[in-house]
Design brief:
By secondary structure, the chain is α+β, with helices and mostly antiparallel strands. It has 13 helices and 28 strands.
């Protein structure tokens, strides 16, 4: 008994479990601290953005285990598996941060809504809209009457600067909000298109013969002589590439960082006057005279997609930026507007007819998608605006979708339509012909109209979308974008496939079996006669041996023959063309030259064989040849 008591004293007093003590402490704290119902309801329905949270994941072993058991766990190469898993983690992190950005965006796009059943939004005129919006937006409604049209317009990425180019050579760039003109040129030749480059300080103009680049003050920087007779220009901001299409049918990509031509493609479809880019994947889309639409990338010399869209010339092509390049709108000289799904090309989702007036210059409609998915269709004497999702809904009949807004342009045709980025404004370049007092006059106008809900109020300062960007910020952004520039080889129809593992191709074994020779197919099925097959193989081997001996003999005979090779063959051909009975100075000189060359060749051969050449004496000059 005493020994048991001694052992108990060594064990010490009884201690409670640490987990039980923690639970008791937590229960005491919960009983002591009051519960805020409002805070609890907010925390249940909200979350802190990942960019603002202070939690750092330090569990490296858990990450490695997840990578090993994740999507790429079957790959044995550790380096490749870790690289692919890191890329997948980066993609997930980017998706979470994009959710945070969407949550933190406080800007809201406006719009027009009908209050009653009998009211329609398309009945609202520009004067009604101006009277019901703020003073700043009301001042944005403007019109500029010019003389060098018809004009094509292009806005910078932040929507603050405007560039116009007229067919009579009038080119100008200016800050339309502040009313400040940067440059104005009268080039005295046709200017078909204009576009800004990395920012508003440089722009390119497609003139009659070549493409020219100018700076902010209108000073000519470069003449791109390789771009002959250009018709349309596009600039890819993430790749620093200037793309042009010409009357000759050549599509050319130019790297503006070093002035080198990256690649040029021959479309083989004649002159092209319609081009646009898909802002989601930087694929160039062309509309041709025969009604086809082609999709091009710098990686392939042939078109990635070829689509017969219209029964006449394709006059305009545009891609919806709000749907990640999913929808494309085309218009043609046949008077139709069609909506296509770029994920499959089985047929147009919807089509309708528009009014055209070829005698007035309106051959087809001009199209443009806004940042919020509104489609502007500029046809003869009017411009109509349609809103999603009605415009992209599948519809089998040839019926116009419901209108969102309309704006009349009487007795004129529209040459260019552009939505202003991050603003609820639409720029229209139209021309009219008047015969007042018996005089034929052309009036060219560039006007802006208010389209509520068309622009995206949230802009990215890192991509040049800040309208209040200064000189220092612009320089830093340009350097950063140059360092992060994408290679032309990354342009693809599906950009999501970059960085992923190529899945193993599923090959039909029956097709492989059919392409094999008949004897191999019979052997694979066990129906071949082995005796006959061995005899046939031996006969084929003997035939091959005989053919090989004959080939060797023929090659030795060919080597034995002395054939004229080198530059003498051209001389012989020249002399054979001349008449034999005509002696002139040229033929005599050529024959003498050939004779001297033959003598030198003969002497060199004799020296190589070891024959001694007799030495010449002073009296050899008096020898006569018979």
């Amino acid at each position: 008994m005493e020994s048991l008591i001694a052992q108990a004293d060594q064990l010490g007093p009884f201690k409670k479990d640490s987990k039980d003590t923690e639970r008791s402490q937590k229960s005491k704290q919960t009983q002591s601290t009051p519960v805020d119902a409002t805070l609890a309801s907010i925390t249940m329905r909200t979350r802190t953005p990942k960019s603002l949270s202070n939690r750092v994941e330090d569990n490296v072993k858990a990450k490695k285990k997840a990578a090993k058991l994740g999507r790429y766990g079957y790959i044995n190469d550790l380096k490749l598996r870790s690289h692919l898993s890191k890329m997948e983690e980066g993609k997930k992190d980017w998706e979470e941060r994009m959710k945070d950005v969407q949550m933190l965006n406080v800007g809201e796009s406006g719009g027009m809504e009908a209050e009653g059943e009998l009211e329609r939004t398309w009945k609202m005129t520009q004067q009604d809209i101006v009277n019901n919006v703020g003073m700043e937006n009301a001042r944005s409604r403007a019109e500029w009457k010019l003389d060098g049209g018809p004009y094509s317009c292009r806005y910078s990425r932040n929507g603050r600067h405007l560039a116009i180019a007229g067919r009579k050579g009038h080119v100008a760039t200016f800050d339309w909000e502040a009313g400040k003109v940067h440059s104005e040129l009268h080039l005295k030749e046709a200017c078909r298109d204009i576009t800004f480059l990395q920012d508003h300080t440089m722009f390119a103009v497609a003139q009659t013969k070549h493409v020219y680049m100018y700076d902010l003050n209108g000073v000519e920087l470069h003449r791109l002589s390789s771009h002959i007779e250009p018709t349309r220009l596009e600039y890819l901001p993430y790749h620093f590439l200037l793309v042009s299409i010409a009357k000759t049918g050549f599509l050319k990509y130019l790297d503006i960082t070093n002035g080198q031509t990256v690649v040029e493609h021959r479309t083989k479809l004649g002159p092209c006057r319609t081009m646009c880019q898909n802002p989601w994947n930087a694929v160039i889309q062309l509309g041709h005279l025969n009604g086809t639409v082609t999709l091009w990338t710098p990686n392939s010399p042939t078109a990635q997609v070829r689509l017969l869209a219209h029964l006449g010339e394709v006059t305009s092509v545009s891609v919806d930026p709000s749907s990640s390049g999913r929808y494309m709108a085309t218009s043609g000289a046949d008077g139709r507007v069609k909506i296509w799904d770029c994920r499959n090309w089985k047929g147009c989702l919807r089509q309708w007819a528009v009014r055209t007036n070829p005698s007035n210059g309106a051959v087809g409609a001009q199209l443009e998608w806004s940042q919020k998915g509104m489609l502007a269709v500029g046809s003869s004497s009017s411009i109509n605006i349609f809103k999603q999702p009605v415009v992209v809904a599948p519809h089998s009949h040839l019926a116009n979708p419901p209108l969102y807004m309309t704006h009349p342009t009487p007795r004129s045709y529209i040459s260019s339509v552009r939505f202003i980025p991050h603003r609820d404004l639409l720029s229209i370049a139209h021309s009219a012909t008047s015969t007042s007092a018996g005089n034929l006059a052309h009036e060219h106008t560039v006007s802006t109209i208010l389209v509520p809900g068309s622009g995206n109020p949230d802009y990215d300062t890192g991509e040049g979308g800040d309208p209040h960007e200064g000189g220092k910020g612009r320089r830093e952004r340009e350097v950063r974008s140059l360092l992060e520039r994408l290679e032309p080889g990354t342009i693809a129809i599906d950009p999501d496939m970059l960085g992923n593992m190529q899945e193993p191709s599923t090959v039909d074994e029956t097709l492989v079996h059919r392409k094999q020779p008949r004897l191999q197919r019979l052997k694979a099925t066990g129906k071949a006669d082995e005796a006959n097959s061995t005899q046939e193989d031996s006969a084929e081997a003997e035939d091959n041996e005989g053919a090989g001996e004959k080939k060797e003999n023929s090659q030795s005979e060919k080597k034995g023959k002395k054939r004229m090779r080198g530059r003498d063959r051209s001389m012989k051909r020249y002399l054979a063309k001349k008449r034999r009975n005509v002696i002139d100075v040229a033929t005599v000189a050529i024959r003498a030259k050939l004779a001297n060359q033959q003598k030198e060749i003969r002497k060199a051969r004799e020296m190589k064989e070891g024959n001694k050449i007799p030495k010449k004496s002073a009296l050899d000059r008096f020898k006569t040849t018979r």
